[in-house]
């Protein structure tokens, strides 16, 4: 799925068909480099930017453009103004998305244990899987706001044919797609910081299996 020319104007337009592995369109990504998207924790964009999106305390949305016909997706968050790689909290456990183009996740709620209020700064990390090996990452810096509103349907929308299903990660004891079974999608005993790396490995295995099934 890796292609060459990806223009920044296409990223701004949101409406364009994906040419990258995946894009994080909203909240605004720190940046984008197709070649370093596989680098933990933020696809080569590892320093917080000053371009923070005001994001709702409850019911937030995250808009992506998907460049793989089939991808596992997970969303994590780290609290703080420049949290490094401390993406210890899962806010959307791993699931499988199918279909190219616009994909907007809606209805985010935060685990009750998280110390977040109006004005808290944080960074959202979106993890998807690769081609098929390895994890792919991108991050967006946000400020939680009780008055933030979600973007309109020109930015937050699903392309025709986009579907989601339960992730095929049942074999990994450290990952659960049942959000009610753990506070953050990671079973106790699995270190959160380590987990994103594990997810990449899991994705690698899944990719190989999926590829074999296609054949
Ligand atoms: C900053 O974020 C806004 C959306 O919140 C986005 O439209 C804009 O392109 C971003 N600017 C840069 C330089 O990334
Ligand atoms: C929660 O965050 C506020 C400000 O961000 C801080 O003053 C307070 O100590 C934090 N509480 C806990 C329990 O970490
Ligand atoms: C996109 O599809 C997902 C999965 O069905 C759904 O949860 C989400 O709300 C949809 N987004 C929009 C903007 O309708
Ligand atoms: C929930 O967690 C318990 C204890 O770790 C485990 O026995 C059970 O299988 C889990 N359920 C699901 C659906 O993952
Ligand atoms: C699960 O997590 C534990 C603790 O971090 C780790 O030792 C183990 O290798 C993990 N297992 C898998 C299958 O990822
Ligand atoms: Cu790709």
Automatic annotation (TrEMBL):
Residues 20-161 form the Copper acquisition factor BIM1-like domain. It is a lipid-anchor; GPI-anchor. One of its GO terms (cellular component) is plasma membrane. The chain crosses the membrane at residues 196-214. Keywords: Cell membrane, Glycoprotein, GPI-anchor, Lipoprotein, Membrane, Signal, Transmembrane, Transmembrane helix. Its main location: membrane. Residues 1-20 form the signal peptide. It is found in: Cell membrane. It holds the Pfam family BIM1-like_dom. This is Copper acquisition factor BIM1-like domain-containing protein. It comes from Phialocephala subalpina.
């Amino acid at each position: 799925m890796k292609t060459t020319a990806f223009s920044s104007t296409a990223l701004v337009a949101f409406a364009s068909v994906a040419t990258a592995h995946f894009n994080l369109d909203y909240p605004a990504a720190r940046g984008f480099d197709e070649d370093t998207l596989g680098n933990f924790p933020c696809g080569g964009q590892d320093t917080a930017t000053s371009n923070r999106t005001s994001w709702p305390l409850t019911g937030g949305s995250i808009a992506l453009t998907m460049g793989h016909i089939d991808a596992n997706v997970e969303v994590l968050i780290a609290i703080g103004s420049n949290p490094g790689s401390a993406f210890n909290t899962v806010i959307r456990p791993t699931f499988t998305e199918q279909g190219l183009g616009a994909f907007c996740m809606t209805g985010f709620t935060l685990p009750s244990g998280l110390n977040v209020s109006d004005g808290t700064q944080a960074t959202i990390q979106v993890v998807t899987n690769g081609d098929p090996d390895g994890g792919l990452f991108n991050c967006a810096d946000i400020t939680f706001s009780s008055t933030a509103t979600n973007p309109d349907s020109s930015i937050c929308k699903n392309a025709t044919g986009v579907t989601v299903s339960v992730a095929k990660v049942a074999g990994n004891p450290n990952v659960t797609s049942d959000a009610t079974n753990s506070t953050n999608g990671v079973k106790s005993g699995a270190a959160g910081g380590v987990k994103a790396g594990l997810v990449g490995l899991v994705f690698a295995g899944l990719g190989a299996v999926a590829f074999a099934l296609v054949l």
